[in-house]
What we know:
The complex is a heterodimer of chains A (about 110) and B (about 120). By secondary structure, chain A is an all-beta fold. Chain A has strands spanning about 5, 10-15, 20-25, 30-35, 45-50, 55, 65-70, 75-80, 85-95, 105, 110-114. The termini of chain A are far apart. By secondary structure, chain B is an all-beta fold. Chain B has strands at about 5, 10-15, 20, 25, 30-40, 45-50, 60, 65-70, 75-80, 90-95, 105, 110-115. In chain B, strands 2, 5, 6, 10, 11 and 12 form a 6-stranded mixed beta sheet that branches. In chain B, strands 3-9-8-7 form a 4-stranded antiparallel beta sheet, with no helix packed on it.
Amino acid sequence: AAGVIQSPRHLIKEKRETATLKCYPIPRHDTVYWYQQGPGQDPQFLISFYEKMQSDKGSIPDRFSAQQFSDYHSELNMSSLELGDSALYFCASSLGGDYSYEQYFGPGTRLTVT
Amino acid sequence: AQTVTQSQPEMSVQEAETVTLSCTYDTSENNYYLFWYKQPPSRQMILVIRQEAYKQQNATENRFSVNFQKAAKSFSLKISDSQLGDTAMYFCAFRINFGNEKLTFGTGTRLTIIP
């Protein structure tokens, strides 16, 4: 079965640069979630989208923005990168709506800021 | 706001033995899900088991079972006949059962299975 696809899998950037992470949900899934997992930490919710509209927002810095496109893929844009942004970024997808469906995680994008 | 607490940062057990990982949570919600996720060295997040709060029966998936105590807000994971491949970080997670709700994770327990 098709899974969540994230690209790139690894990304190395310098401080103050910009990074774009992409997430392709499982076919027919209309909801995307982004989580950030720092070294030795648990995943923290950043932001989610349902039917191309922002659904919920967590501890996402103002330097980050995200959107969901018409084909339901999502992009997380990160500007003015800081050393503390080095983390594993997970995308998860699910069916959305009133019923709470299972979230399926992608393999993650490992971002290293030097 | 919901909180999830895992009080065991690290655990180790001999292969083939049984181990129990603890998790407590706090919420004012009545309708929610609880999950255990496994994160092996590959860092992939793998769903191990889930429990609906409205179900009294404890969930079971092969060698994995939970002890869900709703009144005590406790949700422990029991791994029977542990295998080397069970070595991983285990995260307990909470989710309100409504719409597109996010997952809230505990801080994790690093489990090592000793040959």
